[in-house]
Amino acid sequence: MVINDIEFKLKDGRSALLRSPKDEDVQGMLDYLYISAGETDFILRYPEECNKYTPESEKDFFDHTNESENDAMIVCLVDGKVAGNCQISWSNGIKTRHRASVAIALLSEYWNQGIGTRMFQEMIHIAENNSEILQIELDFIEGNSRARALYEKMGFRITGVRPNAIRLKDGTLLSEYSMIREIKR
């Protein structure tokens, strides 16, 4: 699904652009994936795990997502740099097509600028405009209070916990929390 360009102002006054990923974003997205993986333990990969992403695989992923009826991805660009992304997807399966899944990440230098809120507003808008979708689901890792605050602000509530779902390199075990936001019609 293609998302049209959405321009908005960050809290610090800079302009940001939200849109579907394009071929010209491939290298910026690869850089972003690597950097974001090293900035926090709350992303489900380490930087060295990003070597599986290639320009070809990223372009294929962009093409698949943009052509899909069940996936949408937003890239946020600030001064031409990939600052973050957000994705929503859902199934065509009869028993599960009422459930959409959403994920988000931002480079730390862009935290507290309103990007996460704006991307989530767009994901919620997509879900609300699909009569099949009744709820949006996501997961977050124990200790990620910033993400939890954003999700709760956007109307999500905790529905479950997976104890010890994440194991860091140092052996620390962290729980993963599941949240949903029901679509009100």
Structure description:
It is a single chain. By secondary structure, this protein is of the alpha+beta class. The chain has a domain at 6-133: Gcn5-related N-acetyltransferase (GNAT) (Aminopeptidase), CATH 3.40.630. The protein is 27% helix and 34% strand. It contains 4 helices and 8 strands, in the order E-E-H-H-E-E-E-H-E-H-E-E. It has helices at residues 26-39, 55-67, 115-128, 145-153, and strands at residues 6-9, 15-19, 71-78, 81-90, 99-106, 135-141, 157-167, 173-182. An 8-stranded mixed beta sheet has the order 1-2-3-4-5-6-8-7, with helices on both faces. A hairpin with a 5-residue loop joins strand 1 and strand 2 (15-19). Helix 1 crosses helix 2 (55-67). The model has no long low-confidence stretch (mean pLDDT 94).
Structural category: alpha+beta
Specify the number of helices. 4
Which term fits the overall shape?
Answer: globular
- Beta percentage is 25-35%
Mean model confidence by pLDDT? 94
> Could you tell me the number of beta strands?
8
Summarize the structure.
By secondary structure, this protein is α+β, with helices and mostly antiparallel strands.
List keywords for this structure.
185 residues, 34% strand, eight-stranded mixed beta sheet
Itemize the secondary structure elements and their pairings.
Layout: E1 6-9, E2 15-19, H1 26-39, H2 55-67, E3 71-78, E4 81-90, E5 99-106, H3 115-128, E6 135-141, H4 145-153, E7 157-167, E8 173-182
